[in-house]
Amino acid sequence: MPDVLAAFPELADVDDPDLREGVRDCWATACEETETDDLTVVPWFPPAQRKHGIEGETLVAHVRDVVAGARALADALDASRGTTVDRDLMLASALVHDVSKLYEFDGHEETAVGDLLGHPYYGVYCVAAAGLPVECAHVVLAHTSRTTVEPAFLEAELVRRADEAAAAAVRTSELDDLRDA
Question: Do the beta carbons of residue 171 and residue 181 sit within 8 Å?
């Protein structure tokens, strides 16, 4: 069983013990159910990686980039606008936003979950099964334009924008123009 805290040291920054444990349980259950022994080798997003010849990008690195991006956006808004961001909710949600990719892909091959449900619907199930609050499930569902769910609160918007920027950063490793993605 992979050490979730070793893969995602940012988990230690979630102050609420129930949220922290829920995130750990969410990833631990996903690893167990998908027989994932090493989170650090799970690919970021196989279809995009195949399409653009992107090698070596991992899901763990992407999730950590999203956490860092959401944090930076929250810091900037706190400093300039005096906003109050629920850091625990934002961090926990950013940490689980792509947990469904363990179910959607077996290595680089799409599974029935990926084909029939698509990203990120199964993630909502994972988050709920781990006992995380509905707000985390909302962030998982709203973090991508692949659903019609729009972010309902600032933490969801921050995770969505951080995810978009992190994905764009990966794509720029192989593309000169992001419009070619």
Answer: yes
177 sits in the region (left: phi over 0; alpha: psi -120 to 50; else beta) called beta
Mean pLDDT computed over every residue of the chain: 94
Segments in the chain below pLDDT 70? 181
pLDDT of residue 181: 67
Instruction: Check which CATH number belongs to the domain holding 47 and give it.
Output: 1.10.3210
List the domain range (segments joined by +) for residue 61: 4-173
Q: Which of 159, 155, 63, 156 is nearest to 102 (CA)?
A: 63
CA–centroid distance for 155 within its chain: 13
Enter the pTM of the model.
0.95
> Phi, psi at residue 110, to the nearest 5°?
-70, 140
